[in-house]
Amino acid sequence: MLRQGSIIATMVVEPLRFEASGGVSRFAAEMRSEQAVRSPALIQFNFLADVDPPRALGDAWLAALIVPAMFVGESLEIRAPVSKRLTRTVQEFQRMFHSWFPELFQIVQVIIPETVPTSAERDDGPAATFFSCGVDSWYSALTHLNELRALITVKGFDMPFNDQVVWPLTVRGVSEAASELGLQSIKVETNIRDHADASFGVFKRKYEKNNFWGTYFHGVCLDAVALFLQEQFARVYVPASWHYPRLQAWGAHPLIDTYLSSGRVQIVHDGADAARADKIRAISKVPAALRLLRVCAAYTRGQYNCGVCEKCRRTMFALRAVGVDVSQVPFNAPLNLRALEQKPPKPYLYPIYQEIADEAAKRGDTELVECIRMLTSGSPSVRREWHRWNTRMRRSVMKRWHRLRKPRNPSAGEGHQ
Questions:
Q1: 339 has pLDDT over 80
Q2: How far is CA 289 from CA 275, 280, 295, 355, in A?
Q3: Residue 72 scores a pLDDT above 70
Q4: Average pLDDT of the chain?
Q5: ∠ CA 308-400-200 to the nearest 5 degrees?
Q6: What is the largest CA-CA distance in the chain?
Q7: What DSSP element (H or E) covers 351?
Q8: Sequence-separated (6 or more) residues with CB below 8 Å from residue 355
Q9: β-strand 235-239 against 127-130: which pairing, if any?
Q10: Using an 8 Å Cβ cutoff, are 129 and 154 in contact?
């Protein structure tokens, strides 16, 4: 529902400036919300490249903040021009998102004081793809290499905005990949999660779980970055995490990218037609892809791939399942099948593990098949239960030890003397 006025409970987004100097283009906006713990909040998207500001500057801010507005139940007012197409399609996006997660997100009014005509689509214009050096990223980059001009990498999404440890490693890998592929590398830095990710306790309404970003928020933020770049690219590819047969209500989805595209740029959910094993087989033909592959979700200091987090282990499983030598990828620790019993994957990842097991079975890797069966069966494991008990006991002992070592306050009982 679009309104020209304003109401009391409104999240107001007011773009403050666009600055470009020294090869850095900065977009900033002030977000004011009654439901925000800190308001106003200054949200930034800094592009380490020369970027022409879009005529429909409000497109990106609308995409970035529609999900937080739906979460807190406030109308969303964008005080910048928005393309007419997006003012229509964002309503369908809301209906879809609300139907997926009715308990968390409600349909809200979107207030657009100024609209601009929808631009004609540019079918033959340049393209870019989001790129993190992961499996999905490499697959999309190699698939569309002939039409790509740039790789887009974002700091502030998967890694903290203020990170100074893992980001340099990522930049080095992405820059080398761009050089290998003959493409421009566009780095983006944003603090949007610090002000709009409900997992961080930024709103008065509490979100009890810990993955608001991955489950609901990351897809619209990727689309926002693409919309900031709508003057540069006719298409921006968002590498898909899920195979079409496994698609589910999720923060990144083909329908989300479709509804949040503008007439100026088409946002394409890419690679969902390929299973994980197919993607790994494809990228394994390019030595640079294996040498620079980065999948780690642990962000351990100084480690490109820790080798022990769930995502590292899952990728090592998939590499082994299709017959790729795991040592070709820079993991910091070798694959240890027995140690995996201690940390089984979350149930929503079981379909991915089953695909890996099917591939391993084709190659006769019974050890890997049995390991995955044990991890995804939910059945008790003596080694896992021992690890959990041992961990709880160590934590309990350490808490007691710290309490005993804590200095006693000599004046604590003076009031009773």
A1: no
A2: 18, 10, 12, 22
A3: yes
A4: 89
A5: 50
A6: 86
A7: helix 350-362
A8: 243, 275, 276, 277
A9: parallel
A10: no
pLDDT tens column, 270-312: 999 999 999 999 999 999 999 999 999 887 777 889 998 889 9
pLDDT of residue 386: 54
Of 156, 165, 137, residue with least CA distance to 218: 156
Sheet of 10-21: strands edge to edge? Answer: 2-3, 110-111, 75-78, 10-21, 24-32, 41-47, 184-190, 148-155, 127-130, 235-239, 266-270
| Cβ(255)–Cβ(125) below 8 Å | no
194-241 pLDDT, tens digit per residue, is 999 999 999 999 998 878 999 999 999 999 999 999 999 999 999 998
**What token pair was written down for 339?**
């140690």
46, 25 contact by CB (below 8 A): yes
Which two three-digit tokens encode residue 178? 């761009």
Cα–Cα dist 177/195, whole Å: 31
Rounded CA separation 188/197 (Å): 18
pTM of the predicted protein model: 0.87
Residues in Cβ contact with 109 at an 8 Å cutoff, skipping those fewer than 6 apart: 1, 2, 3, 7, 75, 76
